[in-house]
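Exercise 7.
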Amino acid sequence: MNPKNKILFAGDPHGNFQPLIEAVRQYRPEAVVLLGDYDLALPLDVCLQEIMDLTDIWWIAGNHDFETPAKHNNLFSSGLADKGLHLRVVEIAGLRIAGLGGIFLGRVWYPPQPPKWLDKQHFLTNQFPGKLDVDLSLKYKSAIWYDEFEALKSLKADILVTHEAPSSHRHGFRVIGELAASMGAKHLFHGHLHENYSRVIKNNVRVFGVADKAVANLQGRTLSQEIDGLCKIL
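Solution. The predicted structure, written as tokens, is:
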């Protein structure tokens, strides 16, 4: 196996997992990392059952994965629920990979503006005073929270994967690149914005955007483009 292909990164599938499945069959990577926005009609492990025994599968969530309870449950209660990378670092195929899922929401924190809430409990206490059993709505669960973001900076990683983009993209956020630099990561892969590109930002962090339904290797080279075939109940 070409060492450049030992880990593959999959852009937003939006229900179409066939490009990733074909890439795994062809390149036989040790692991794959999915960058969010799955639009799952079935549990993630069911959609990827053809490659479950061929590679190690990891993921972060995107904004689409919080749109409905069904989409959320098909990810967070799937057979791959324990393979989420959000807010942690995992050694995968010999590299330390950190994950940051979700998106910035104006009602929570939208850099460079200061955060509106210190943390989730601060928000809940103000919204529902005196109530102890209130949970966040799916919309708020999709948000990047300032305290969790700051805590991630104390960890070390070789690669950071995010759904949001850093400042390398016109719709990106400078703080994402600052996070990568704080963690010592020299490579950053992101989805969300549906563009394949490579760019170097401050602190010599190389950013790879991975387009929807595209699959990229460790050098950011696109290996697979869209192929017809949705995850459906047969």
